[in-house]
Amino acid sequence: MAAHAANRRSRTAWDITKAIAFGVVVSALIVIVAALIVVPRATGSTTYTILTNSMAPGLPPGTVIVTQPRAISDIRVGDVITYQVESGKPAVITHRVVGISTDTRGETAFITRGDNNSVNDPEPIIREQVLGVVIYSVPYIGLAINAVTGNAKLLVPVLIAVVFILWGLGYVVSYVLSRKKKQAALPEDDAA
Question: Which residues cross the membrane (predicted)?
Answer without folding.
Answer: 20-39, 130-148, 154-177
